[in-house]
Amino acid sequence: MNKLHRAIYPFLGVAAILAIWQLYTFISGISRIVLPSPLDILRVSVTRFDLLLQQTWPTTLESVAGFGLALLIGIPLAVCVANSRLLNLTLYPILVATQSVPKVAIAPIILVWFGLGIESKLAIAFLVAFFPIVVDTATGLRATPPGLLELARSLRASPFQVFMKVQMPAALPFIFAGAKVAITLAVIGAVIGEFVGSVNGLGNLLLTANSQLDGPLAWAALVWLSLLGIVLFVAVSLTERIVMPWAESGHH
Amino acid sequence: MPQEATDTRAAQSGPSSTLFGRFENVHQSFARAGQDRLVAIESVSFNLRAGHLASLLGPSGCGKTTFLRIVAGLIPATSGVVQINGTNVTAPQSDFGVAFQQANLMPWRTVIKNILFPIEIRRESTRDTLERAHELLDLVGLSGFENAYPSQLSGGMQQRVALCRALIHRPRLLLMDEPFGALDELTRMEMQNLLLDIRAKTGATVLFVTHSISEAVFLSDVVVVFSKRPAVIADYIDIDLPYPRTPEVRYSSKYTDFEHRAGRALGITR
């Protein structure tokens, strides 16, 4: 089965669900406020395209910036945790403890600290994206094949060389696994922030449309949010393929 | 053809008589929590001549790999003398090449970059080293695979690349820890011929760990038979067969005699 054939099946599945959904709204005569049909949502997506696009930017910015900050702080922290027993013992339990605090519950507090602007959403996106990046990177750094470490030692490589030329590249698949989870979570974090308090963004639009009983627009915002999540995920996956071409070549 | 002409040892009578490695009462034991110390190597003494290929033959877990790691400078001996070229070995030396049972290639590096890794660590990259990497690849029959990734190679091909990497900095001592152990029989025999070929061309001294009697006899000038743990030397066999060794030598009566002697030392045959 080639790639094209395999790609057809999910599309068929989605098409079938949309068809049943459309048929159901048509037959049941259910209110558009409660459940708009796929065609209603599509229509709104086209007619209010400018509004939706305009509201997509703040959410994208919040997610990507929060994700970027999580990478920027998470990876160096993971390096510390993976290489120092003391830091591992000190920081790891704190990390796990902070992770168990529900992010939705701290969102209002963060809003008080950072205000209604982008900073509070960025902070929440950062908080949810941070954990998978730290944990996966630390796991990857500790999972360096012992044979490669021994080889480096037999060549009298310096600790810095071992880190740059062996540990880090060996951890890359783990880092990307964490990054793929993190980018999806970052979008969720941004939307949580927008729900709790905001002036713009797709989450804000969804909430506003809902309160104005504009079902199709609320659903359109939801669809756009999902698309945003998918696009960002694909972007990370493509980066992975570019950075790690060897991972791809093994499957031939 | 007269035997002398085919015998590299006879041809290189100069270096072959030179002492290269000296191992005296090498003893290794490890501390164990709540138990007595585990003695891996009781006492091992032998000399390694320059240009010789010496095999360490012994049952699994007998301490031969531990001994190789001591010689490589990766772990210190608990007591005893480990001298290579007149120097006491306490750390990995720059003129050693090590090949492990696993090829240990870096999946993120292409073949050529894997081979150049030791050079990169030493910051000695020059045009010559790149040229040498290509020569080595040619020698092991992998020309054209320079830019392939290890995952695209078979196990045997990966070991060839690992061999090139061990040879890139022209080591005077090549340490090999069952490098062909994970390969199928045919590939293994091919690799054995290749190793003898490389040894003849480079003149490197080789210390080769194996648990295959036939491999040890086929490759070596000298087979050092290790006993079960804690290891002592059960036998020291001069393999008096001329090089280059053709596959036919495996069927000669002298060859099987050596195999029997090694087998007796291991306690397998009477």
Task: Write up what this structure looks like.
The complex is a heterodimer of chains A (252) and B (270). Chain A is mostly helical and 252 residues long. Chain A has a domain of 166 residues: MetI-like (MetI-like fold). Chain A is built from 11 helices and no strands. In chain A, helix 2 crosses helix 10, helix 3 packs across helix 10 and helix 8 packs antiparallel against helix 10. Chain A is globular, with a radius of gyration of 22 Å. The mean pLDDT of chain A is 91. Chain B has a domain of 147 residues: Rossmann fold (3-Layer(aba) Sandwich). Chain B has a 10-stranded mixed sheet, with helices on both faces. Chain B contains 11 helices and 10 strands. Helices cover 35% and strands 24% of the residues of chain B. Chain B has 270 residues and is of the alpha/beta class. At the A-B interface, helix 7, helix 8 and helix 11 of A face helix 6 of B.
Précis, in short:
With 252 residues, chain A is an all-alpha fold. Helices cover 85% and strands 0% of the residues of chain A. Chain A has a domain at 39-133 and 173-243: MetI-like (MetI-like fold, Orthogonal Bundle), CATH 1.10.3720.10.
